[in-house]
Each structure stands twice: as C-alpha cells, then as structure tokens.
Design brief:
Elements (H helix, E strand, L loop, with lengths): L6 H12 L4 H14 L3 E2 L13 E6 L3 E6 L9 E6 L4 E12 L2 E9 L12 E10 L5 E13 L27 E4 L5 H13 L5 E11 L4 E3 L5 E4 L2 H16 L6 E6 L16 H13 L4 H9 L2 E5 L2 E2 L22 E3 L10 H13 L5 E3 L11 H9 L3 E5 L1 E3 L6 E4 H16 L5
Parallel strand pairs: 1-2, 4-13, 4-14, 14-18, 15-19, 16-17
Antiparallel strand pairs: 2-3, 3-13, 5-6, 5-10, 6-9, 7-8, 7-10, 11-12, 12-20, 16-18, 19-20
Helix pairs in contact: 2-4, 4-9, 7-9
Length: 434
C-alpha cells in the first residue's frame, strides 16, 4: 500500500484546499494551475478561435469552470471528467448584523445538507465574493478570504443541557449565529471595509453585495500512524476537482479531453453555472462548431461517442457504524475508487459505463470497489444523472471513499488520491472508449 502514496501530490492537494475556501476561490485556484500548464483562458462573451492540439478553459459565474484539450486530428469524441466546486456550509444572510448579550454576531443561512454539530467550537474564517462600488461609480467584483479565526459558534455547557448527549435538534436560526466580537456599534459593512482594505488595498469603496460563507481555518492534515488518511474541510468535492485537474494536466494530450467543475451541486444544480444549467452544453456546441463538423447531427454524434466520469466522493465503511452499509457494498478507505450504483438512477452508472471503468482500472493496475445504498435507506445524488439528462452523454458515477461527508472536517485515504488519479489519467489517454 505504501507504494501508492505520493507525498508531493498530497501536498499539492493540501495547498489547493487551503487556497479554496469558497467555490470562487476553488475556480481561481484551478484556473491558475491550468494557465501554468499551458491552458489559454477564453471568455464566453467573446468569439472563440480554437486550434487543434491546443488547450483552453472558460469559467461561468467565476465559480464553475470547464477546461478542455483538442486533439490534433479532428474532434470525434471527448473523455470527460465532472466534479463540483461547492461544499455544504453556512452562508451569510444579506442583512447579517445582529447583536445579543453585548456580542456582535452574523446571521447565517444553511447551504446544502450540512452536518451541523461539528460546526460548534471551531475557529472560523470568512470567504467568498464581494461586489464594491468605487468612488468613480464603477462596480467591480473581488474575492475575499479572511483566513484567520475571526469567529466561533460556542457550545452550550453540558451543565445547562444535561440531556444533550441523548440527542437534540439544532436550530440554525437561533443557535448557530457565529460570535465575532464584543461591540455595540460595529456592523458587517465596517468589518468588510476593513478586510477589503487589508487584503486588496481598497479604500473609499462601498460594499454593494456579497456572497460569503464561514469556514474552518484549521489546515488540512495527513493523519494516521502510517499516513493513511487526509483530514480537511471541503473534501466533498474539492478532492474530485483536484484529482480531475491532476489527471488532465498529466495526460499526454493526444485525445479530446474535458474537465467540468460545476457550482451549486449541493443545492440541486439548478442554476446557469450548475450541472442542470446550459454551461457544458454551450461549450460542446462551440467546440463542435469550431473544430467538429458543425451540424446538429454531428453534435449528437460527438456526445454519443464520448463518456463522462462523474467524480464525487463515496461513503466509506465506518468502523463504528458498519450496520449503515449493505454488508457486501461497504467501500474501504484506500481500497481504490468506488463505482456508485443506484437502480432508481440517483447515480448515472449502468453496466456499459461500469464495465468500461472497471477495464480502465484494470489497465491502470488500480483496485476498484462498488457502493450501493442499503435498500432501506435513501440515496444521495451527484452531477452525473443531471449531466446525463441535460446533455445526453453516457455517464458513470465514481468517487473516492470518505468518512464524515458534509461535516466541517472530512476524512479520506491518501492512497486513494493516487489510485483515482492514475485511473483518470489512463482514461484521458485511452485511444478508444469501447
């Protein structure tokens, strides 16, 4: 197992997670690495002039990104990898300033299916996107990352709630407003002004709007006696974004390849930049028009000759909760990528796409596992079924096994990072998709 551990790749992952506290920061981090790898930025509002053999990327809403490489010899198929940039968390309300017992707090709304209990007693920073008006009237957007402990959500002492360990509901409206400072006068606008000046040197600007969320500033860490585990915030699903990016940058460039990382998966993907929106379809139409045959018929042919591997983490078998898994479908951490199957199409895998991925893993000498939810439990979903529905591309759902999904701090296996990267790199290099 130790041979599968790649310390340099793990460090790159930790750096990526640290630099990506919000979907906007994650997209910026990916764009930076793509440009370092020779990818050229495109703008959706501009005309595209694409050349065979070149590499490009484009963003939408600054929180979703698509990167692609074009083969030298005509575009007849695409090897696609899909992931998402967002993670469950606590986002600020528009009028967030509130006070209680002499403390400044900020009101939050829940984004996605958050596991709330682990958010208590954490050191919280704040990150996201802010729109400001300058003195000359210009509106600009800037990324903000207050990467130090500026807030906490304190637990109630057990002496005041003796039954807490028997289980109690958590009310995010009344019990989860982070505490920032003792103050009767400071408000959020004043704080934002100071942070914008501190991070960007912006003075004399008016905050017009924002999309900001709290996050745990504790750094990612390699954990375990033999460095078997990585623990971090936002492994779901920045781990898949990172692995897909590593594979795309490492592939030989001979085949048509595409990486898409959508925002808003955790809240249903129904947005212009989400998987339920037209972002991927728009890019595919432009690719077909520029370097394909250009007709509606050839677009369908291109899509049906392609394959999407939707990458989103899977539920690993938990040593303390073994009964939560089907006894024959409990993926092991560091046991290889997981094929996710659901008869009700909550995952997009079918026998055709599943067989192809198993073949890829065999060729890459990578172990492979399968996950099916217990028949008496509900099942989550991914961008896979949504992308397959919207675009029509044959799709499989896979992912790295992890513990504590949707917690403020999640855990995955260090060896699985390399397992899935190797499989996806081979997939992108494969001459055929049969």
């Amino acid at each position: 197992m130790s041979q599968a551990f790649n310390a340099e790749r793990t460090q790159r992952l930790c750096d990526f997670l640290s630099n990506s506290p919000s979907p906007w920061h994650a997209t910026q981090s990916m764009a930076t690495r793509l440009e370092q790898g020779g990818f050229e930025r495109l703008e959706e509002k501009a005309d595209w002039q694409l050349s065979p053999g070149k590499r490009y990327y484009v963003t939408r809403n600054d929180s979703s990104i698509i990167a692609f490489q074009l083969p030298v010899q005509g575009l007849s198929s695409l090897r696609m990898i899909g992931a998402h940039t967002d993670s469950p968390g606590l986002r600020l309300k528009p009028e967030a300033t509130q006070r209680s017992a002499g403390w400044l707090q900020l009101g939050v709304q829940v984004y996605g299916g958050v596991l709330l209990a682990p958010w208590f007693d954490r050191d919280l920073g704040l990150a996201g996107r802010v729109h400001v008006r300058h003195a000359d009237g210009r509106l600009t957007s800037v990324l903000l990352n207050v990467a130090r402990p500026i807030a906490t959500i304190p637990s109630l002492a057990i002496h005041l709630d003796r039954d807490v360990n028997a289980g109690r509901a958590i009310n995010p409206q009344t019990q989860m407003a982070p505490v920032l400072m003792q103050s009767d006068g400071v408000d959020l606008d004043a704080l934002l002004g100071g942070w914008l000046e501190e991070e960007h040197g912006l003075e004399d600007v008016e905050v017009v709007d924002f999309e900001l969320g709290f996050y745990d500033v504790q750094p990612s860490a390699v954990v375990g006696i033999q460095s078997e585990l990585i623990a971090s915030a936002r492994l779901d699903n920045l781990l898949s974004c990172f692995i897909g990016l590593e594979a795309l940058l490492a592939c030989d460039g001979e085949q048509g390849a595409l990486l898409v990382a959508n925002d808003h998966e955790e809240v249903g993907s129904a947005s212009a930049c989400g998987a339920q929106g037209p972002f991927l379809a728009d890019v595919l139409k432009r690719l077909n028009a520029q370097v394909g045959k250009g007709s509606d018929e050839s677009l369908i042919q291109l899509i049906q000759s392609s394959l999407m591997i939707s990458c989103d983490n899977a539920h690993a078998l938990h040593p303390n909760f073994r009964d939560k898994h089907d006894e024959r479908h409990g993926p092991l951490i560091n046991g290889g990528p997981v094929i996710k199957v659901n008869a009700s199409q909550r995952y997009a895998t079918n026998s055709v796409t599943g067989a192809l991925f198993r073949d890829v893993c065999k060729e890459a000498n990578v172990p492979v596992q399968a996950f099916v939810t217990r028949a008496d439990m509900g099942c989550g979903s991914t961008i896979g079924p949504i992308t397959a529905t919207q675009v029509g591309v044959p799709t499989i759902d896979v992912g790295v096994p992890q513990w504590a999904m949707h917690s403020i701090r999640e855990t995955a296996g260090t060896h699985d990072i390399n397992h899935l990267t190797r499989a996806l790199t081979l997939f992108l290099n494969r001459p055929t998709l049969a």
